[in-house]
Amino acid sequence: MKEKDSSMRTINIISVVIPVAVAVLLGIRTKPDLGEWTKILPHLNAVINSLTALLLIVGFYFIRNQKREAHRWVMTTAFILGGVFLISYVLYHLTNPSTSFGGEGAVKYVYYFILISHILLSLVVLPLVLRAFYFALKADYQRHKKLVKFAYPIWLYVSITGVIAYLMISPYYA
User: Fold this and answer.
1) Chain CA centroid to CA 70, Å
2) CA-to-CA distance for 119 and 113, rounded, in angstroms?
3) pLDDT (tens digit per residue) in 24-63
4) How far apart are CA 35 and CA 130, in angstroms?
5) Own/partner pairs for 91-94, CB < 8 Å, 24+ apart?
6) SS3 of 173, please?
7) Which residue segment(s) compose the domain that 55 sits in?
8) Fewest Cβ atoms nearer than 10 Å: which of 1, 5, 26, 65?
9) Which CATH number characterizes residue 94's domain?
10) What's the total number of domains in the chain?
11) Measuring CA to CA, which residue among 130, 139, 165, 159 is closest to residue 58?
C-alpha cells in the first residue's frame, strides 16, 4: 500500500509542478538564446500532437478489438510522445517570446475558445493520463478502464485542439 501511496503522491506532485513550471516559463521576459533551431519547435509540437491523436485513435481501435499488446505498445508510444512534447514546448517557451494571434472578427473568438479549452483541459488530462498509465503498469485494469473513460476523450481533444491552435496561429510566427 505504501508504494501505491508514494506513486499517487508523485503523480500529484508532477501534476502540479509541470503546469506551474510552464506558467513561470511563459512569464520570463528575458529569454536565453539557444539558437535559431528553437524556432522549429512549434512545428515539431504540431507533428507530435498529430501523431498522438492518431495513436490514441489506433489504441482505441486495438483495445476494442482485444489486441491488448498492440494497444499497450501504441499507448506507451503516445505517452512517450507526450513527454517529448512537454520538453519541446518548454524549450520553445523558454527561448522564444509568445506569439500573438493576429486574426480578427469571429475567427479570433474561435481561436481563443480553442486555445483556452485546450490549455484548461491539458491541466485536467495530465493527472488522468499519469494515473491511467500507472494503473496499466500495475495491471490494475479495472481502475485503468474506469479512468480512461474520462482521460481518453480529453487527451484526444487536447491533442487535436493543439494542432488546430497551431494551424490558426502559425501564420503569425516571426
Assistant:
1) 22
2) 10
3) 887 888 888 899 999 999 999 999 999 999 999 999 999 9
4) 32
5) 91/34, 91/38, 91/41, 92/38, 92/41, 92/42, 92/45, 93/22, 93/25, 93/26, 94/25, 94/28, 94/31, 94/32, 94/34
6) coil
7) 2-172
8) 1
9) 1.20.120
10) 1
11) 159
